[in-house]
Design goal:
The complex is a heterodimer of chains A (about 575) and B (about 400). Chain A has about 575 residues and is an alpha+beta fold. Chain A contains eleven helices and 26 strands. Chain A has an eleven-stranded mixed beta sheet with strand order 5-6-4-3-7-8-2-1-10-13-12. In chain A, strands 15, 16, 18, 19 and 22 form a five-stranded antiparallel beta sheet that branches. Chain A is elongated and about 130 Å long. Classes of the chains: A alpha+beta (about 575), B alpha/beta (about 400).
């Protein structure tokens, strides 16, 4: 009886602890054609009073102090590489709200009395974050900072604070690599040693077809507790190519399979014993977590809560898909009502693995169609000017889509606003509803263009504008100037019909590579050498004309020997003459 | 005095050594582009070595001018190898790069060394040394007679480097420096040094190239330079743990011209005590982390003195708290005035940000424009009419 009571008490204790638990993690797996989408989500919170007193529990102290120092109330930081293949993969994770443009993207709401103070705090913030995340965030200066008007809304509850300033910066050329993942993992309470974060290995992560790391900090007010807390959400989304990820890490170079192991398309006329047209695989590929991520899942993070509905590992597959579990510890499986989602409570301190065999499927999952497709390109030729074109398609046959299109262009790409054209094929109506524009100032700030547009159902909108390429100063070129210059991706925020939650739904285009006129960098030396030659020739001739007397060859008194010898001989003769006189 | 005689040598040890109390490493790669993979591998090899021997990430300044690990040309994503056997992944799982990409410039390097950095510079990007710090400075890249190229775009000259070290000595920013450089004509780079306590070594003499060791056919480029390779070989074989007593002299003696294909140089003359003292320095004085603790043996503290000091500290804390509270009581009024003044200023400043642009569908403005144009035409016509009279 006593033991039963004790158990009850323990249970009650556990329940209260879990209710109080401020850390939560979840990995969602979703198969995509021949690949796997893994989306990690880590959430921790800190009550406002504790945060103000710098009493951090799950919230990382290093980040918390930066936020306090820079008076940042809400922060969004993104590291992304790769392109989301919307045609094959469908709608984005979280409707794109936890995604960034290629490279690094940062936006924050900063508390300040005026614009200058906000900007100086912004500089403090980007510099501190650059040290924390080993990224060149300090390159976000005035030329790369904009103040979006419509494209971003605060996610947190800021009350009616009027002195919040939104600042936004992008670094499209920034490399994302292991040195960025290392500090990201160090912010987690389990630091990649246990829980789902133990799967995050740089070698596989940076081999993925698409990857994005996000950090979001926002204040949330809880009406029940009548208190506010600061919530930090860390998100990692990646699309792993199953075949590519299964290659061993020490030998990742693909080698051709022996022909016996390839399934050939025998319907081809040339198919024979030595020629083979490989058949595309239809079956779902076999994989295990350990194979795909390169390391095992080391059990649950003991700090995360264990309520039902907060299982740390979920997989979204049709019910017929076979999933075998490989673990020695106790685990629990929970199927959701839709039964296409299977979730698992992980054992602690023991490895856990999902083993999925190769399987021919009869049913598939319904893939959610994205609301818009967007592509952006640079057109034109030559070193002087060009034009940019964005093609945005609304696949829906019923709904018109209203969206905000945000461009933040570098100062050396100067658009002509009067050439801005937006038209929808087969529709006379102007899709542009509202435009915000801030022109660039050379070397001081970039262009900020924000347009609210409406695109009718099943139609394609084309937005074009011409721009001029600036000529940079010799010292302004980067070391790899001939590679071209990156223009940040355009951000598209879908206003209606609204999908998702208060985070909004976003699409980002790929960045543009802008070729600028680049000099031959050895040119100054050529100029110096040529100038010196001209100077020497001109100066030498004039000098000769001024100081020399030109006489005919026959007028020159006969000299026995020219040069030094002759001079010496002449001197000797004159000396002798002097001596003779004396 | 209840000190046992056995303890005395232990207490005396720090004074006998009376040397550095911290170790820092500045590891600089200076070449960009994929075909210079080996230079980044050189730097990362040194990074792994100093980390292995105990210098923490916070005291290592790592400068990598290009990204090799996540380069699209790298068949081994997230890795950098310094050997074709690919036994050790230098990039690993835990790496902190302090300056990377375009940040690796001559200016940033000299600012780092002399601590002339902007106010907002984070701690991880600063060299916070003092007169008791030993610094290992390792540089590699492409160079020539008295210069080293940075990113194929600019150069640092031997004079710049010598002046930077000179300034560091004046500012008491180092105790001893070990300067290592692996580049063509490397020995010319330290020839202009003039500040004391620098032990310098380089891979090759003037007019000599510094060669790569071997290539990995799957990586596709050379993976390490000879000078660095043989240094590492020595460090890995002879300096196995953080208690090693191996000296710098032994390292220098291991240099073999036939293996390196160039004549490595060593400069002792700046070092206090000259060649003998420099050669007797332990390798770990520069590559390892020694945190000497000085034990204050001067005064014998007794219990009462200890308590008195504690009480004094407590009184100071009380006093500070009282003053803090006083200021809290006083402040609101003053702050209010400041806030009002600032609000006045806010109203005056123009709001930065994008302005709304509307397309002119308004007829009024077009009529005004047309009228203005017509007016101009009329004045011109009248003018020419008068002129014709």
């Amino acid at each position: 009886m006593l033991s039963f009571l004790l158990l009850l008490f323990l249970n009650a204790l556990l329940a209260t602890v879990s209710a109080e638990s401020d850390y939560h993690e979840r990995l969602n797996l979703r198969p995509l054609p021949q690949s796997l989408l893994a989306s990690f989500n880590f959430r921790s919170k800190e009550w406002a009073s504790a945060f103000a007193q710098q009493n951090f529990r799950y919230f990382p102290r290093s980040l918390g102090q930066i936020l306090q120092h820079a008076h940042t109330k809400e922060l969004h930081l993104r590291f992304s590489v790769g392109r989301w293949d919307a045609e094959n993969w469908g709608s984005r994770v979280f409707h794109g709200a936890r995604e960034g443009g290629n490279g690094v993207e940062l936006w924050a709401w900063i508390e300040a009395q005026n614009e200058e103070e906000a900007f100086s705090r912004w500089l403090t913030l980007v510099n501190s974050l650059s040290g924390l995340f080993c990224a060149s965030l300090n390159f976000i200066d005035a030329t790369r900072t904009i103040r979006p008007v419509m494209a971003f809304e605060p996610e947190g509850n800021h009350g009616n604070a009027s002195n919040l300033h939104l600042l936004h910066g992008m670094l499209p050329h920034e490399v994302v690599c292991t040195e960025n993942l290392t500090p990201f993992l160090k912010l987690l309470p389990c630091k990649g040693k246990a829980g789902i974060s133990s799967l995050l290995d740089g070698h596989k992560f940076f081999d993925a077809a698409f990857q994005t790391m996000a950090i979001d900090v926002r204040p949330v007010c809880d009406k029940a507790h009548d208190d506010c807390y600061l919530e930090m959400e860390q998100t990692v989304d990646m699309v792993l190519d199953v075949d590519r990820s299964k290659r061993p890490q020490d030998n990742p170079i693909p080698r051709p399979l022996p022909i016996e192991e390839i399934e050939c398309d025998l319907s081809k006329s040339y198919s024979g014993g030595d020629t083979c047209y490989p058949l595309k695989k239809q079956a779902e590929p076999a994989w295990t977590l350990k194979e795909l991520f390169g390391r095992p899942l080391k059990g649950a993070c003991p700090l995360s809560d264990e309520e039902p509905g907060s299982e740390p590992l979920c997989i979204n597959v049709p019910p017929e898909r076979t999933i075998n579990i490989s673990t020695t510890g106790p685990y629990k499986e929970a199927r959701s009502a839709m039964d296409t989602i299977r979730c698992f409570h992980l054992p602690q301190l023991t490895e856990f693995d999902l083993v999925l065999p190769e399987q021919q499927m009869t049913t598939g999952l319904v893939r959610q169609q994205p609301q818009l497709f967007a592509a952006r390109t640079i057109n034109g030729h030559g070193q002087e000017r060009g034009s940019a074109q964005s093609v945005i398609t609304n696949p829906s046959t019923t709904d018109a889509v209203e969206f905000v299109y945000l461009e933040s262009l570098p100062w050396f790409m100067k658009p002509y606003l009067h050439t801005l054209r937006a038209h929808v094929a087969n529709s006379p109506e102007n899709p542009v509803k509202e435009t915000y524009y801030r022109p660039a100032v050379d070397r001081q700030r970039g262009t900020h263009l924000e347009i609210r547009m409406v695109i009718p159902p099943a139609s394609t909108l084309t937005l074009t504008y011409d721009f001029e390429k600036a000529i940079l100063r010799y010292t302004e070129y980067p070391p790899d100037a001939n590679r071209g210059f990156d223009a940040a991706p355009a951000v598209i925020r879908i206003l209606s019909p609204q999908q998702g939650d208060e985070k909004g739904s976003y699409i980002r285009t790929t960045p543009l590579l802008l070729p600028l006129p680049t000099p031959d960098f050895s040119m100054p030396y050529n100029v110096i050498i040529l100038t010196s030659t001209v100077m020497a020739l001109g100066f030498g001739n004039i000098f000769n004309l001024l100081v020399r007397r030109f006489v005919g060859a026959d007028e020159v008194p006969a000299m026995g020997a020219g040069g030094l010898k002759g001079i010496l001989a002449a001197k000797l003769v004159s000396l002798k003459a002097k001596l003779g006189k004396a | 005095m209840k000190f046992s005689p056995a303890l005395l040598p232990l207490l005396a040890a720090p004074f006998a050594a009376a040397e550095h109390t911290s170790n820092w490493a500045v590891l600089v790669g200076t070449s960009r582009f994929w075909f210079n993979y080996r230079h980044l591998a050189n730097v990362l090899s040194l990074y792994r070595t100093v980390k292995r021997l105990g210098i923490p990430d916070s005291q290592i300044i790592l400068m990598l001018p290009d990204d090799m690990a996540c380069n699209p040309r790298n068949a081994f994503p997230g890795t950098v190898y310094n050997n074709a056997d690919r036994a050790l992944d230098l990039y690993g799982d835990n790496i902190e790069v302090d300056y990377r990409g375009y940040e690796v410039t001559v200016e940033n390097f000299i600012r780092l060394m002399t601590d002339r950095v902007p106010e907002d510079m984070p701690r991880s990007k600063r060299l916070m040394t003092d007169e008791r710090s030993n610094i290992l400075v390792y540089m590699t890249g492409h160079g020539g007679n008295e210069f080293l190229k940075f990113q194929d775009a600019e150069e640092i000259s031997a004079y710049d480097l010598a002046d930077a070290f000179g300034q560091m000595w004046e500012k008491k920013r180092y105790h001893e420096i070990l300067f290592m450089i692996d580049t063509c004509q490397a020995n010319t780079m330290y020839s202009k040094f003039y500040s004391p306590n620098i032990l310098a070594t380089g891979s090759s003499e003037i007019d000599q190239s510094s060669y790569s060791h071997h290539a990995d056919s799957d990586v596709g480029v050379a993976v390490i330079d000879r000078y660095t390779y043989y240094n590492l070989e020595f460090l890995e074989d002879k300096v196995r743990d953080p208690t090693s007593k191996t000296t710098m002299g032994e390292l220098f003696d291991s240099y073999d011209e036939d293996l390196m294909h160039s004549r490595p140089g060593i400069r002792y003359d700046l070092f206090d005590g000259g060649e003998d003292v420099a050669r007797s320095r332990r390798i770990l004085d520069f590559f390892g982390n020694v945190q000497n603790v000085e034990i204050d043996t001067g005064g014998q503290r007794n219990e009462t003195q200890w308590k008195e000091e504690l009480e004094a500290i407590e009184r100071m804390i009380e006093e500070a708290k009282r003053r803090h509270n006083e200021t809290l009581n006083v402040r609101p009024h003053a702050q209010h005035i400041v806030e009002e003044a600032e609000q006045m200023r806010t109203q005056q400043t123009i709001k930065e940000g994008a302005a709304r642009v509307d397309e002119e569908a308004d007829w009024k403005k077009q009529i005004i424009g047309a009228a203005a144009l017509l007016g101009c035409a009329g004045i011109w016509a009248a003018g020419s009419l008068f002129e014709s009279f």
